[in-house]
Amino acid sequence: MNEALIYSGAGIIILWGIAHLIPTRAIVNGFGAISGDNKKILTMEIIAEGLTLIFLGVLPILVTALSDCPGNIVFSASAGMLLVMALLTLLTGARTPTIWYKICPAVKTLVAVLYILGAVL
C-alpha cells in the first residue's frame, strides 16, 4: 500500500510540474515591457520551478522501483537534474551580464560529474 501512495504522490507532483511549464511564455509576457535580461531570468526561474517539481516526483519513483541500490539512484538522478539545470541556466541566465549566472552552469556540471564519479568509483 505504501508504494501506491508514493506513486500517487509522485504522479500528482509530476503533473503539477508540467502544469507549471505550460504557461511559461504567457506568464513572462504578462509582465509587460521588461528588459530582455529580466525575461531570461524570469523564464529560467519559472522553468526551474517546474523541473524541480517533476524531479521531486521522478526521484521517489526511481528509488521505489529500483530499491536495490537507492544511493546510486539518488546520485545519478541528482547529477542528471543538475545537468538539465546547467543547460537551462546556460540558455537563459548565463546570457545576462550577471557573473553568478555565467558561472552557474560550470558549477552545476562539476557537481554532477563528482556525483557520477562518486557513484561509480
Class of secondary structure makeup: mainly alpha
Mean pLDDT: 92
Query: Beta-sheet strand percentage?
Result: under 5%
Report the total helices: 5
Computed CA radius of gyration, to the nearest angstrom: 17 Å
Low-confidence stretches: none
- Percent of residues in helices: over 70%
Distance between the termini: 35 Å
Compressed to H and E, one letter per element, the order equals HHHHH
Major beta-sheet overview:
none
Number of domains: 1
Give a count of the beta strands, DSSP E runs of length 2 or more: 0
Outline:
With 121 residues, this protein is mainly α. It has five helices and no strands.
What does this structure look like?
The chain is mainly alpha-helical and 121 residues long. The chain has one domain (2-120). It is built from 5 helices and no strands. The chain has helices at residues 2-21, 24-29, 36-65, 70-91, 99-120. Helix 4 runs antiparallel to helix 5 (99-120). The longest helix is centred in the middle third of the chain and has 30 residues, at 36-65. The model has no long low-confidence stretch (mean pLDDT 92).
